[in-house]
Amino acid sequence: MLFLIARRIILAIITLFIISLIVFLGVEALPGDSATSYLGQFATPESLDALREEFGLNHPAHIRYINWLGDILRGDLGDSMPRRAPVSEVIGNRFRNTVVLATAASIIGIPLAIILGVIAALTRDRWPDILVSLSAIIGMTVPGFVTATVLIFVFAIRLEWFDAITLISSDAPVTELLPTIVLPIVTLTLVMVAHILRLVRTNMIDVMVSDYVQMARLKGVPAIRIVFQHALPNALLPTINIVALTIAWLLGGVAIIETVFNYPGIGVQMINAITDRDMALIQGIAIILSAIYIGINLIADLLTLLLNPRLRTTRTQ
What we know:
It is globular, with a radius of gyration of 24 Å. It is 76% helix and 1% strand. A two-stranded antiparallel ribbon has the order 1-2. The protein has 16 helices and 2 strands. Strand 1 and strand 2 (85-86) form a beta hairpin. Helix 1 (2-28) packs antiparallel against helix 15 (279-307) and helix 5 (87-122) runs parallel beside helix 15 (279-307). With 317 residues, it is an all-alpha fold. The chain folds into 2 domains: 2-84, no CATH class; 94-276, MetI-like fold, CATH 1.10.3720. The protein has helices spanning 2-28, 34-39, 45-54, 61-73, 87-122, 127-141, 144-158, 174-177, 182-208, 211-218, 223-236, 240-251, 255-260, 266-276, 279-307, 309-316, and strands spanning 79-80, 85-86. The longest helix is centred in the first third of the chain and has 36 residues, at 87-122.
Protein backbone atom coordinates (compact mmCIF):
# COMPACT_ATOMS: atom_id res chain seq x y z
CA MET A 1 0.00 0.00 0.00
CA LEU A 2 2.77 2.43 0.94
CA PHE A 3 4.60 1.51 -2.26
CA LEU A 4 1.53 2.34 -4.36
CA ILE A 5 1.09 5.69 -2.62
CA ALA A 6 4.78 6.57 -2.97
CA ARG A 7 4.76 5.59 -6.65
CA ARG A 8 1.70 7.73 -7.33
CA ILE A 9 3.25 10.74 -5.58
CA ILE A 10 6.49 10.36 -7.52
CA LEU A 11 4.58 10.15 -10.81
CA ALA A 12 2.67 13.32 -9.87
CA ILE A 13 5.94 15.17 -9.20
CA ILE A 14 7.43 13.99 -12.50
CA THR A 15 4.26 15.04 -14.34
CA LEU A 16 4.39 18.50 -12.78
CA PHE A 17 8.04 18.86 -13.76
CA ILE A 18 7.25 17.93 -17.39
CA ILE A 19 4.37 20.40 -17.43
CA SER A 20 6.62 23.17 -16.12
CA LEU A 21 9.02 22.48 -18.99
CA ILE A 22 6.19 22.51 -21.53
CA VAL A 23 4.81 25.78 -20.12
CA PHE A 24 8.23 27.44 -20.25
CA LEU A 25 8.95 26.25 -23.79
CA GLY A 26 5.47 27.28 -24.91
CA VAL A 27 6.01 30.81 -23.65
CA GLU A 28 9.49 30.88 -25.18
CA ALA A 29 8.04 29.90 -28.56
CA LEU A 30 5.91 33.05 -28.71
CA PRO A 31 7.30 35.70 -31.07
CA GLY A 32 9.00 38.70 -29.51
CA ASP A 33 9.46 39.13 -25.79
CA SER A 34 7.86 40.86 -22.82
CA ALA A 35 10.23 43.81 -22.92
CA THR A 36 9.38 44.71 -26.52
CA SER A 37 5.66 44.32 -25.85
CA TYR A 38 5.84 46.39 -22.67
CA LEU A 39 7.91 49.31 -24.02
CA GLY A 40 6.36 49.34 -27.49
CA GLN A 41 7.82 49.36 -30.97
CA PHE A 42 9.50 52.74 -30.52
CA ALA A 43 11.57 51.67 -27.51
CA THR A 44 15.29 52.37 -27.67
CA PRO A 45 17.80 49.51 -27.58
CA GLU A 46 19.19 50.89 -24.31
CA SER A 47 15.81 50.83 -22.57
CA LEU A 48 15.11 47.31 -23.85
CA ASP A 49 18.47 46.06 -22.58
CA ALA A 50 17.91 47.69 -19.19
CA LEU A 51 14.46 46.14 -18.82
CA ARG A 52 15.64 42.71 -19.92
CA GLU A 53 18.49 42.86 -17.43
CA GLU A 54 16.11 43.94 -14.64
CA PHE A 55 13.84 40.92 -15.21
CA GLY A 56 16.58 38.47 -16.15
CA LEU A 57 15.53 38.15 -19.79
CA ASN A 58 19.08 38.62 -21.03
CA HIS A 59 20.12 35.14 -19.87
CA PRO A 60 19.96 32.03 -22.10
CA ALA A 61 16.69 30.09 -22.05
CA HIS A 62 18.02 27.12 -20.08
CA ILE A 63 19.43 29.40 -17.37
CA ARG A 64 16.13 31.25 -17.11
CA TYR A 65 14.25 27.96 -16.82
CA ILE A 66 16.51 26.70 -14.05
CA ASN A 67 16.21 30.00 -12.20
CA TRP A 68 12.43 30.02 -12.64
CA LEU A 69 12.10 26.45 -11.43
CA GLY A 70 14.29 27.17 -8.43
CA ASP A 71 12.22 30.23 -7.56
CA ILE A 72 9.01 28.17 -7.78
CA LEU A 73 10.41 25.62 -5.34
CA ARG A 74 11.01 28.52 -2.94
CA GLY A 75 7.47 29.80 -3.45
CA ASP A 76 8.45 32.72 -5.70
CA LEU A 77 6.50 32.91 -8.97
CA GLY A 78 8.46 35.87 -10.27
CA ASP A 79 7.43 39.45 -11.03
CA SER A 80 4.86 40.76 -13.48
CA MET A 81 6.48 43.24 -15.82
CA PRO A 82 3.37 45.20 -16.95
CA ARG A 83 1.92 45.26 -13.43
CA ARG A 84 5.19 45.87 -11.61
CA ALA A 85 4.20 43.50 -8.80
CA PRO A 86 4.97 39.94 -7.69
CA VAL A 87 2.92 37.35 -9.56
CA SER A 88 1.69 35.84 -6.29
CA GLU A 89 0.17 39.20 -5.30
CA VAL A 90 -1.46 39.70 -8.70
CA ILE A 91 -2.96 36.21 -8.59
CA GLY A 92 -3.96 36.24 -4.92
CA ASN A 93 -7.46 37.74 -4.89
CA ARG A 94 -8.31 36.36 -8.33
CA PHE A 95 -7.48 32.84 -7.24
CA ARG A 96 -9.52 33.28 -4.05
CA ASN A 97 -12.52 34.40 -6.10
CA THR A 98 -12.29 31.34 -8.34
CA VAL A 99 -12.03 29.09 -5.26
CA VAL A 100 -15.17 30.73 -3.83
CA LEU A 101 -17.05 30.16 -7.09
CA ALA A 102 -15.85 26.56 -7.45
CA THR A 103 -16.57 25.73 -3.81
CA ALA A 104 -20.11 27.09 -3.96
CA ALA A 105 -20.83 25.21 -7.20
CA SER A 106 -19.36 21.98 -5.76
CA ILE A 107 -21.30 22.19 -2.50
CA ILE A 108 -24.54 22.49 -4.44
CA GLY A 109 -23.73 20.41 -7.51
CA ILE A 110 -22.15 17.23 -6.11
CA PRO A 111 -24.97 16.28 -3.67
CA LEU A 112 -27.58 17.27 -6.27
CA ALA A 113 -25.89 15.08 -8.91
CA ILE A 114 -25.79 12.10 -6.54
CA ILE A 115 -29.45 12.49 -5.56
CA LEU A 116 -30.62 12.82 -9.16
CA GLY A 117 -28.42 9.92 -10.26
CA VAL A 118 -29.91 7.66 -7.58
CA ILE A 119 -33.46 8.71 -8.49
CA ALA A 120 -32.80 8.04 -12.17
CA ALA A 121 -31.32 4.60 -11.42
CA LEU A 122 -34.17 3.53 -9.12
CA THR A 123 -36.79 4.62 -11.67
CA ARG A 124 -35.00 3.19 -14.69
CA ASP A 125 -36.88 3.67 -17.98
CA ARG A 126 -39.75 5.48 -16.22
CA TRP A 127 -40.58 9.16 -16.50
CA PRO A 128 -38.30 10.42 -13.66
CA ASP A 129 -35.35 8.61 -15.26
CA ILE A 130 -36.24 9.90 -18.73
CA LEU A 131 -36.60 13.47 -17.45
CA VAL A 132 -33.33 13.43 -15.49
CA SER A 133 -31.38 11.72 -18.28
CA LEU A 134 -32.72 14.11 -20.91
CA SER A 135 -31.77 17.10 -18.73
CA ALA A 136 -28.30 15.64 -18.25
CA ILE A 137 -27.82 15.16 -21.99
CA ILE A 138 -28.86 18.75 -22.63
CA GLY A 139 -26.54 19.98 -19.89
CA MET A 140 -23.62 18.03 -21.35
CA THR A 141 -24.13 19.09 -24.96
CA VAL A 142 -25.05 22.77 -24.59
CA PRO A 143 -21.90 24.93 -24.21
CA GLY A 144 -21.50 26.68 -20.90
CA PHE A 145 -21.51 30.17 -22.41
CA VAL A 146 -24.87 29.43 -24.07
CA THR A 147 -26.33 28.36 -20.72
CA ALA A 148 -24.89 31.50 -19.12
CA THR A 149 -26.38 33.72 -21.83
CA VAL A 150 -29.84 32.14 -21.43
CA LEU A 151 -29.71 32.57 -17.65
CA ILE A 152 -28.72 36.22 -18.04
CA PHE A 153 -31.54 36.85 -20.51
CA VAL A 154 -34.20 35.18 -18.34
CA PHE A 155 -33.20 36.02 -14.77
CA ALA A 156 -31.26 39.26 -15.19
CA ILE A 157 -32.90 41.01 -18.14
CA ARG A 158 -36.48 39.71 -18.17
CA LEU A 159 -37.15 38.96 -14.50
CA GLU A 160 -34.47 41.31 -13.09
CA TRP A 161 -33.86 38.97 -10.15
CA PHE A 162 -30.06 38.95 -10.34
CA ASP A 163 -27.22 41.05 -11.71
CA ALA A 164 -26.15 40.20 -15.23
CA ILE A 165 -22.46 40.80 -14.51
CA THR A 166 -20.22 41.17 -11.48
CA LEU A 167 -19.40 44.81 -10.86
CA ILE A 168 -17.40 44.63 -7.63
CA SER A 169 -13.61 44.69 -7.49
CA SER A 170 -11.46 41.58 -7.24
CA ASP A 171 -10.41 42.39 -3.66
CA ALA A 172 -13.97 42.71 -2.33
CA PRO A 173 -14.79 40.65 0.79
CA VAL A 174 -16.37 37.25 0.22
CA THR A 175 -19.57 38.44 1.93
CA GLU A 176 -19.97 41.08 -0.78
CA LEU A 177 -18.94 38.71 -3.54
CA LEU A 178 -21.43 35.88 -2.90
CA PRO A 179 -24.70 37.77 -3.56
CA THR A 180 -23.43 38.83 -7.00
CA ILE A 181 -22.45 35.39 -8.31
CA VAL A 182 -25.73 33.49 -8.18
CA LEU A 183 -25.94 33.09 -11.95
CA PRO A 184 -22.31 31.96 -12.38
CA ILE A 185 -22.84 29.38 -9.62
CA VAL A 186 -26.03 28.11 -11.28
CA THR A 187 -24.28 27.87 -14.65
CA LEU A 188 -21.37 25.84 -13.31
CA THR A 189 -23.68 23.69 -11.18
CA LEU A 190 -25.79 22.74 -14.20
CA VAL A 191 -22.70 21.73 -16.17
CA MET A 192 -21.11 19.64 -13.40
CA VAL A 193 -24.38 17.96 -12.36
CA ALA A 194 -24.94 16.76 -15.92
CA HIS A 195 -21.59 14.96 -16.03
CA ILE A 196 -21.63 13.43 -12.56
CA LEU A 197 -25.24 12.21 -12.41
CA ARG A 198 -24.88 10.18 -15.60
CA LEU A 199 -22.04 8.19 -14.06
CA VAL A 200 -23.87 7.80 -10.73
CA ARG A 201 -26.94 6.50 -12.57
CA THR A 202 -24.94 3.96 -14.57
CA ASN A 203 -23.04 2.71 -11.53
CA MET A 204 -26.19 2.46 -9.41
CA ILE A 205 -27.95 0.40 -12.09
CA ASP A 206 -24.99 -1.99 -12.25
CA VAL A 207 -24.78 -2.32 -8.47
CA MET A 208 -28.54 -2.83 -7.99
CA VAL A 209 -28.46 -5.96 -10.18
CA SER A 210 -25.32 -7.38 -8.54
CA ASP A 211 -25.36 -10.66 -6.63
CA TYR A 212 -24.86 -9.22 -3.16
CA VAL A 213 -27.77 -6.79 -3.59
CA GLN A 214 -30.00 -9.60 -4.80
CA MET A 215 -28.95 -11.66 -1.78
CA ALA A 216 -29.78 -8.76 0.53
CA ARG A 217 -33.24 -8.56 -1.00
CA LEU A 218 -33.79 -12.28 -0.51
CA LYS A 219 -32.81 -11.91 3.13
CA GLY A 220 -35.49 -9.24 3.55
CA VAL A 221 -33.20 -6.25 4.06
CA PRO A 222 -35.27 -3.03 3.78
CA ALA A 223 -35.03 -1.31 0.40
CA ILE A 224 -33.80 1.99 1.82
CA ARG A 225 -30.99 0.18 3.64
CA ILE A 226 -30.02 -1.69 0.48
CA VAL A 227 -29.82 1.56 -1.48
CA PHE A 228 -27.94 3.76 0.97
CA GLN A 229 -25.89 1.23 2.94
CA HIS A 230 -24.98 -1.38 0.33
CA ALA A 231 -25.50 -0.01 -3.18
CA LEU A 232 -24.69 3.72 -3.03
CA PRO A 233 -21.22 3.48 -1.37
CA ASN A 234 -20.08 1.01 -4.02
CA ALA A 235 -21.64 3.03 -6.83
CA LEU A 236 -19.86 6.18 -5.70
CA LEU A 237 -16.36 4.67 -5.73
CA PRO A 238 -15.91 4.94 -9.53
CA THR A 239 -17.21 8.53 -9.45
CA ILE A 240 -14.43 9.83 -7.19
CA ASN A 241 -12.12 10.53 -10.13
CA ILE A 242 -14.89 12.21 -12.13
CA VAL A 243 -15.72 14.45 -9.17
CA ALA A 244 -12.03 15.27 -8.80
CA LEU A 245 -11.73 16.13 -12.49
CA THR A 246 -14.82 18.32 -12.24
CA ILE A 247 -13.49 20.22 -9.22
CA ALA A 248 -10.13 20.66 -10.94
CA TRP A 249 -11.95 21.97 -14.00
CA LEU A 250 -13.83 24.45 -11.83
CA LEU A 251 -10.66 25.63 -10.11
CA GLY A 252 -9.09 25.98 -13.52
CA GLY A 253 -11.05 29.17 -13.76
CA VAL A 254 -13.58 28.31 -16.48
CA ALA A 255 -12.39 31.40 -18.30
CA ILE A 256 -15.36 31.62 -20.69
CA ILE A 257 -17.92 31.61 -17.87
CA GLU A 258 -15.92 34.16 -15.90
CA THR A 259 -15.67 36.37 -18.97
CA VAL A 260 -19.42 36.20 -19.68
CA PHE A 261 -20.24 37.33 -16.15
CA ASN A 262 -17.25 39.70 -15.84
CA TYR A 263 -16.23 37.67 -12.80
CA PRO A 264 -12.82 38.65 -11.38
CA GLY A 265 -11.37 35.15 -11.28
CA ILE A 266 -8.11 33.56 -12.31
CA GLY A 267 -9.47 32.53 -15.73
CA VAL A 268 -10.07 36.14 -16.73
CA GLN A 269 -6.67 37.01 -15.27
CA MET A 270 -5.06 34.46 -17.57
CA ILE A 271 -6.78 35.97 -20.61
CA ASN A 272 -5.62 39.45 -19.58
CA ALA A 273 -2.08 38.17 -19.09
CA ILE A 274 -2.04 36.69 -22.60
CA THR A 275 -3.37 39.95 -24.04
CA ASP A 276 -0.68 41.94 -22.19
CA ARG A 277 2.02 39.36 -23.03
CA ASP A 278 2.75 39.12 -19.32
CA MET A 279 4.96 36.04 -19.55
CA ALA A 280 5.69 35.71 -15.83
CA LEU A 281 1.99 35.88 -14.99
CA ILE A 282 1.09 33.35 -17.70
CA GLN A 283 3.71 30.92 -16.41
CA GLY A 284 2.65 31.46 -12.80
CA ILE A 285 -1.04 30.82 -13.43
CA ALA A 286 -0.32 27.84 -15.66
CA ILE A 287 1.92 26.14 -13.09
CA ILE A 288 -0.54 26.81 -10.24
CA LEU A 289 -3.47 25.37 -12.17
CA SER A 290 -1.39 22.39 -13.24
CA ALA A 291 -0.35 21.71 -9.65
CA ILE A 292 -3.97 21.93 -8.49
CA TYR A 293 -5.15 19.62 -11.27
CA ILE A 294 -2.47 17.03 -10.51
CA GLY A 295 -2.95 17.38 -6.74
CA ILE A 296 -6.70 16.85 -6.86
CA ASN A 297 -6.33 13.82 -9.11
CA LEU A 298 -3.65 12.45 -6.78
CA ILE A 299 -6.00 12.80 -3.82
CA ALA A 300 -8.78 11.08 -5.78
CA ASP A 301 -6.49 8.17 -6.69
CA LEU A 302 -5.35 7.76 -3.09
CA LEU A 303 -8.95 7.85 -1.84
CA THR A 304 -9.90 5.21 -4.38
CA LEU A 305 -7.04 3.01 -3.19
CA LEU A 306 -7.98 3.45 0.45
CA LEU A 307 -11.71 2.81 -0.05
CA ASN A 308 -11.43 -0.09 -2.48
CA PRO A 309 -9.48 -3.07 -1.07
CA ARG A 310 -9.94 -5.05 -4.30
CA LEU A 311 -8.18 -2.33 -6.27
CA ARG A 312 -5.26 -2.38 -3.83
CA THR A 313 -4.95 -6.13 -4.21
CA THR A 314 -5.17 -5.97 -8.01
CA ARG A 315 -2.54 -3.26 -8.33
CA THR A 316 -0.22 -5.01 -5.90
CA GLN A 317 -0.39 -8.15 -7.99
